[in-house]
Input
Amino acid sequence: MRILQFGRSGQVATAVQAAAREGVEVVALSRAECDLRNPDAIRGAIQAANCDLVLNAAAFTHVDPAESCPDEAFAVNATAPGVMAEACVARDLPLVHLSTDAVFDGLTDRAYVETDEAKPLNVYGRSKLAGERAVLAHPRAVVLRVSWVFSRYGRNYVSFMLRLAREREVLKVVADQFGTPTDGEALAAFLVATAPRWAAAPSGDPTFGLFHFANAGETSRFDFAKTAIDRDPLTRASLEPTTQAAFAEPAPRPPRSPLDTAKLREVFGFAPEPWRSAVERAADRLVATGAIG
Ligand SMILES: NC(=O)c1ccc[n+]([C@@H]2O[C@H](COP(=O)([O-])OP(=O)(O)OC[C@H]3O[C@@H](n4cnc5c(N)ncnc54)[C@H](OP(=O)(O)O)[C@@H]3O)[C@@H](O)[C@H]2O)c1
Output
């Protein structure tokens, strides 16, 4: 079983390579090997690949910079996945793609299900929604929407907060934004474990389509950060709650975007772990290895 993966050094891309186990090989392409702004490079990589499944773990993930470079955000997050889907259709390869809670406007009183209307507030969310739609034109495609991804790999919210909490006396954290953290290592393990099933599944199989993947429960950015930094004996900072409005970031964020994972449980029998224990474990690993930042 061989997976061709777009993205090599990103957070999820690294976690998937680490999760690869006997019988599942991951061939990961860096940006230098295949720049997603180049459709011919994408087509060429898929045409030439000796693989059973294609996984797109690459994206333009910089939410604020996307506001000032929408062309690049759309090229990487929308056009490129569409090209992947066409190339996968031509070879009858399944395509697995990752998307985001940022496709929602966050004006909800419950966790979002897959059938809820997507109304992105920013360029990043609009580009990712366009990418989802292009990918789902392929009958053997899977889109997993994830949110607030953390792990021991790459630069992520947990590692970033741990670093800031060591550097600063006071750390202001947004307390009026709510969502579901996603354990990137659990996501990677799920992708690797499920890859053989997708590779064998025909069009129309219930394992294809749109799914939400996140930990169980809902929290605020503030409690997410607090849970992580409370694990570090070298934390200096005291946390102070603040608001999204006070940060005045270029890209508006959904105020509340928890993801309901009932469909994931129903189709795959996957029961997500509560977010708190997963965050504590990742923070403990980051503190133990010193990979903070
Ligand atoms: N992190 C989150 O909180 C979060 C939340 C919701 C959804 N997601 C989604 O989850 C997926 C994985 O995110 P992540 O956290 O692993 O992101 P990440 O750490 O920022 O990694 C993004 C990857 O995309 C690659 N990339 C960017 N532009 C490229 C280009 N033009 N050509 C080729 N590769 C390019 C990067 O390569 P370089 O290393 O060379 O720059 C990097 O490997 C994405 O689809 C993202 O939208 C993430």
Remarks:
- The two ends are 34 Å apart (CA to CA).
- The chain has a mean pLDDT of 96.
- The pocket of NAP is lined by residues 7-13, 30-31, 35-37, 57-61, 76, 98, 100, 128, 146-149, 154, 156 (CB under 6 Å).
- The chain has one domain: 2-155+181-217+258-273.
